[in-house]
Structures are given as structure tokens and as C-alpha cells.
Amino acid sequence: QVQLVESGGGLVQAGDSLRLSCAASGRTFLLFAVGWFRQAPGKEREFVAAISRSADTTTYADSVKGRFTISRDNALNTVYLQMNSLKPEDTAVYYCAARRSGYSRGYSQYDYWGRGTQVTVSS
After folding, report:
1. Which of 106, 96, 98, 89 is closest to 41 using CA atoms?
2. DSSP string, 49-77
3. Mean pLDDT of residues grouped by 10 in the chain (123 residues)?
4. Shortest CA distance to 44 belongs to which of 109, 88, 93, 4?
5. Are 115 and 56 spatial neighbours (Cβ–Cβ below 8 Å)?
6. Spatial distance between the Cα atoms of 67 and 103, rounded to a whole number of angstroms
């Protein structure tokens, strides 16, 4: 099992940057691929980015490609989401999720979830 805790959210202006962190418990974190998802009010949860267990592969939603970067430090049991050039449409609760084996873009494929961190981007 793994427990996930997100942090780093906040209120920023359009064009600003934020770095989200996802801290995981457990000694087997390197066995888990990790994804970031987000959910805005009244909308479905959507995929943002994912990273493989060894960090050699990443994938992004088209809406964030070139602006967001996912990375991980397995020694610290932490996954990061660097968000640059933020837009008002990035406003959402951001969740990290973990699954054994390979990463996936589907939120139903993930077994473990954090509680989320709010990101609000003002125009």
C-alpha cells in the first residue's frame, strides 16, 4: 500500500508558476507509476501528466504540454508537478495517484489517491 499527500497549491495570477508535490509513504514507492489529475467545479476529473516508475517515461495532456513538467525523486518518495505559464483554465483541485506497474492516462486505472490540493489562477 501507499499513502499520498499533495501540497504546493495556492492562488496565483495568470502567467505565474507553481510546483506541486506528492509525498508518498512506504518503502516500495519505486514500484508505483504516478499520475496527476485535476478536477474543476462541475467537470469530470481529467488527466494531466504521468510518470513511469523509473522516471524514464512521461506523458502529458495536450492542454498542459510544454507548460507542465512531471518528475520524481524515488529517494525522497516524492513526485513533482512544475506548472509554468498558468492560465485561469488550470484552476482545479489537483490530485496525485499511484498504481503498480506502468503508468496510465485513465483515472480508473489508479489504485491510490491523495486528497488533493487547490490551484486557483486569477486572470
Report:
1. 89
2. EEE-TTSS-EEE-TTTTTTEEEEEETTTT
3. 95 98 88 96 96 95 98 95 98 97 92 97 96
4. 93
5. no
6. 20
